[in-house]
Amino acid sequence: MHQANDDQLRARAYAIWEREGCPSGKDREHWELAVKEMAGQAAPLRDQGPWRTPQENGPQEIHKPGI
């Protein structure tokens, strides 16, 4: 069970890191924020999991079959 919690915490910290634009040198800050969020001490700024929104990914080319 402890490993599952560590994995969830790691995934949450990674999502925070991605959300902030993948900056270097803020790993401890992201980890501590993830701990607080998972403990219910702080509401997440934007809880979207580790996935990016289309706006965060930028424009993408649309492929239409047969064209």
What does this protein look like?
The protein is mainly alpha-helical and 67 residues long. The chain has a domain at 1-40. Helix content is 51%, strand content 0%. It is built from three helices and no strands. It has helices at residues 2-19, 27-38, 54-57. The termini are far apart.
> Fraction of residues in helices?
40-55%
Beta-strand portion reads under 5%
- Cα(first) to Cα(last) distance is 51 Å
Poorly predicted runs of 5 or more residues? none
Structural class label: mainly alpha
- Estimated radius of gyration: 16 Å
N-to-C SSE string, H for helix and E for strand:
HHH
Task: Give the beta-strand count.
Answer: 0
Q: Figure out the total of helices.
A: 3
Q: What is the mean pLDDT?
A: 77
Sheet having the most strands: none
In short:
This protein has 67 residues and is mainly alpha-helical. It has helices spanning 2-19, 27-38, 54-57.
Compile the SSE list and pairings.
Elements: H1 2-19, H2 27-38, H3 54-57
